[in-house]
Structure formats: structure tokens, C-alpha cells
Known about the structure:
197 residues; mainly alpha; Alpha-lytic protease prodomain-like; 0% strand; elongated
Amino acid sequence: MNDPRWRRALWIALILNAGMFGLEIVAGLTADSRALMADAIDFLGDSGNYALSLAVASMALAWRARAAVVKAATMLVFGLSVVGVTAWSALFGTSPQAETMGLVGLLALGVNVFVAAILYRFRAGDSNMRSVWICSRNDAIGNLAVMLAALGVFGTGQAWPDLLVASIMAVLAVWGSISIFRQARDELRASPQVSHA
């Protein structure tokens, strides 16, 4: 699909996500928040996914499905890496700064709700379009969770709310990747171009 509205929405999403990656990775390191760092890595992955979607927007369905497989694999790697970082932090980490988590989480939520809103009309498209929508939806849910974690850290003075949210974000990424893998697999099986690839 080479709809100019789709391409414009992807460019906006790409620029906003790349900017938020830079902001959140610095904030996550400064605040010692695993949830913010997980969200920052997710912003980076989404930036790459939007760039890949732009690259294959005018190609045949089989190529868009292959791009969706790459994006699903990225989501899966993200989810599993967050599981590892969260487990390490549970053993050796410190309590993060709740105020920074809350402020940055609120900004990230605003960005992700805006991106999800401009991509909403494309949510029922092929696996490539659906993967973009799922990423954006998961990001907005993740940011709500980061803000709840900030409240939990502020109220308890402990790290467990931050670690819990990082774990939830990991599960969302793995669950979303499985859904995208399945749809892309079905599209590749149905595509006549696959047999010639």
C-alpha cells in the first residue's frame, strides 16, 4: 500500500519515536529506571520498524509480510532482553527516581497516544500495517504503566513497581510479536509470489 496518508503518518511516527528514544534513554539512565530504559529501547525499535514500513510501503504483499516478520522478531528480542535486564535489576538494582519516571512517562504517553491516533485508521490492514498499529498501541499502554510504576515507587520507596512494569512491557512485546508472526505467515502462504522467491 502506497497511500500518501499512510506514508505521512509513518514519517511523523518515525520522527517522534526517534526523538523520544534519545530523551528516554538519558532519563532512564539518570533516574535508574528499568521501565524507562525498556520504553526507550522500544522507541528505538519502533523507529526502525516505521523506517522499514516506509521502505516496503509500495511493494507487493509478500514483501510487506516479510517486513512484518522482521518487525515481529525485533519485538520478540526486545521483550526477551527486557526480561533479562529486569531479572538482573531485581537482584542488583536500586530504587529509581519516581519524579523523573512520572514526568517522562507522561510526555511519552502523549507522544504515543498521538501516534496511535494517526495510525488508528490503518489498524485493520495487512500484517505490516497491523504491526505498526500494535507497536503504537503497546507503547501507549506501556506509558500508562510507567506512570503507575512511578506512583508505586514514590509511594513505597522500592523498585518492585518499576520492575513489574518492565515485565509487563516485555510480555506485551512477546505477545504482539506472536500475533504479527501468525498474520505474516498466513499472508506469505497465501501469496503467489512466495513460490518464486
